[in-house]
Amino acid sequence: MLENPYSLRLHSAVLFAVEAGQQTLHRFQDSQLKVETKDDRSPVTAADRDAESLLRERIAAAFPDDSILGEEFEDVHGTSDYRWIIDPIDGTKSFISGVPLYATLIGIELQGESQIGVIYMPALDELIFAETGQGVHYRRGNSELSVAAVSNVETLSDSCFVTTQLSSYDQADRRDCYRAIEKKACITRTWGDAYGYLLVATGRAEVMVDPIMNVWDAAAMLPILQEAGGTFTDWQGVSTIHHAEGIATNGHCLQEVLAITRDA
Fold it and tell me: What are 6-21's pLDDT values in tens digits?
């Protein structure tokens, strides 16, 4: 699928994400799929676990010294400077509802710094991937790879603002922030989870905000957004995947959003 100048780990991450994502399609919109509830009250299915198992098998076989952090199983502690952070089905609520806005995510850290990100939307067949310093590429269906870029919209008042689930703002006691951004934005939609970040990276939305994120939700986002010319930060403007929250923007709208979120 990929040729030089892509690194071996980026090449592998793309192949693994697509393979695992395609596997989830076998159970997508399956009326017999059993949904369980985890301790944090989030849903999980056999499709989540099987896809993560496949990712872990592929990573361990190709890069046995690398560490692995995933949503469904225990951490693997390696001896190299690389750590794979994986989410087999980001947007399980969409998946179990038969909605195609879910993704398979892979992020790779090098010495604790985000280096590689892959978002694959199996049901939409959209793929975006990036490596720090090597640009970001996007493909839909059987189209050729193209260079992805954020939009040139300059103000929040002209922007499309997307988010995941409004109750998460209540959970984080940040509903006022949501209302303030929504009031200023031109369009607000809850096309959330990984799909919202993909929309920002490809210029179809300008702002994506999550008041609560796990590291496996965020790991792929930072290199993709930065290489697309945008930003991925926490609510204080720090470029990190480790602060349990996230804001993606096209860059132009970042300060307007931070003026709201920094007070939260």
Answer: 799 999 999 999 999 9
- CB 71, CB 86: distance < 8 Å: yes
Whether the CB-CB separation of 163 and 248 falls below 8 Å is answered with no
Residues 211 and 257 in one domain: yes
- Written as one letter, the residue type at 126 is E
Quote the number of domains for the chain. Answer: 2
Whichever domain contains 127, its CATH number is 3.30.540.10
Length reported for the chain = 264
Beta partners for residue 68, in sequence order: 76, 84
Tokens standing for residue 158: 């002209």
Task: Supply the range of the domain harboring residue 34.
Answer: 8-147
Amino acid identity of residue 195, one-letter, is Y
The phi-psi region of residue 229 (left if phi > 0; otherwise alpha if psi is between -120 and 50; otherwise beta) is: left
Q: Is residue 43 part of a domain?
A: yes
Q: Which residue has the tokens 């984080």?
A: 172
The verdict on 21 and 138 lying in the same domain is yes
CA distances from 20 to 17, 64, 85, 147 (A): 5, 19, 14, 24
The pTM of this model reads 0.95
Report the candidate in 159, 153, 224 with the shortest Cα–Cα distance to residue 195: 224
